[in-house]
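User: Here's a structure from my thesis project, written as structure tokens. My advisor, Dr. K., wants to see whether a designed sequence matches the one we expressed. Can you design one independently, without my sequence as a hint?
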């Protein structure tokens, strides 16, 4: 099923743009030695015995293996896509048709917040390739370096988020954690470094940011005005009631 795009002008008020550049996490580090072929086989057998959604992993003779991961999309900024292009069909995916290359026109959309995309990958597929694959599926033409893949670990009632290196292999992490997404999940977010690199954004993106900021400003002004209008109304009612009472 192809997830729909949500056009910018019809989206409900997005989260404040001023709060989008604060999600900074340290890259993941794994100092464990690589598993042997026998260990991989045992882990895959254990994984498949607990997998209930027919998304089992398959081991190849060369020691590599394939399987599925699910990625939550939590992008709070609009993405750039080709203008006037239909969603990718199954035929396009099989034939690897690059619809984005058929036009130079661009527009910006909000992708559905917290949508989930399932990917079939191999044990050698890197984080960088996962990001590029996700962007291609949604025909996003933004620079892949603007995005980052995070792993979320659920432990003791807390959710710990950790940014993955572009060279990490998500399927290996999935194998180690098991099939339960309540234990480990993957999330695609904006790649925040703590400093906003405005030069990395295109002119349409910057114009969209200005539009969002102006809308946020107007909404805040209206909220304050409504608050004080309501307060003024109550004061005037109280004054009328006190003046109408006999002295």
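Assistant: Designed independently from the structure alone:
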């Amino acid at each position: 099923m192809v997830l729909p795009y949500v056009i910018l002008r019809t989206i409900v008020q997005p989260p404040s743009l001023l709060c989008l550049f604060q999600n900074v996490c340290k890259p993941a580090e794994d100092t464990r030695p690589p598993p042997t072929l026998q260990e991989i086989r045992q882990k895959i057998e254990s994984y498949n015995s607990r997998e209930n959604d027919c998304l089992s992993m398959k081991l190849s003779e060369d020691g590599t293996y394939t399987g599925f991961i699910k990625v939550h999309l939590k992008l709070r900024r609009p993405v750039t896509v080709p203008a006037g292009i239909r969603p990718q069909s199954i035929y396009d995916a099989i034939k690897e048709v690059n619809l984005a290359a058929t036009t130079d026109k661009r527009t910006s959309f909000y992708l559905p917040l917290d949508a989930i995309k399932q990917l079939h990958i191999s044990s050698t597929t890197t984080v960088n390739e996962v990001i590029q694959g996700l962007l291609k599926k949604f025909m996003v033409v933004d620079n892949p370096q603007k995005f980052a893949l995070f792993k979320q670990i659920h432990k003791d009632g807390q959710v710990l988020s950790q940014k993955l290196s572009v060279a990490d292999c998500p399927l290996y992490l999935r194998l180690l954690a098991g099939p339960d997404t309540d234990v480990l999940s993957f999330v695609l977010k904006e790649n925040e470094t703590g400093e906003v690199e405005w030069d990395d954004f295109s002119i349409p993106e910057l114009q969209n940011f200005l539009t969002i900021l102006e809308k946020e400003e107007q909404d805040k002004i209206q909220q304050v005005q409504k608050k004080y209008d309501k307060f003024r109304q109550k004061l005037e009612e109280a004054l009328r009631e006190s003046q109408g009472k006999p002295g």
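When you compare it with your expressed construct, this may help: Helices lie at 37-50, 90-95, 127-137, 170-177, 203-244.
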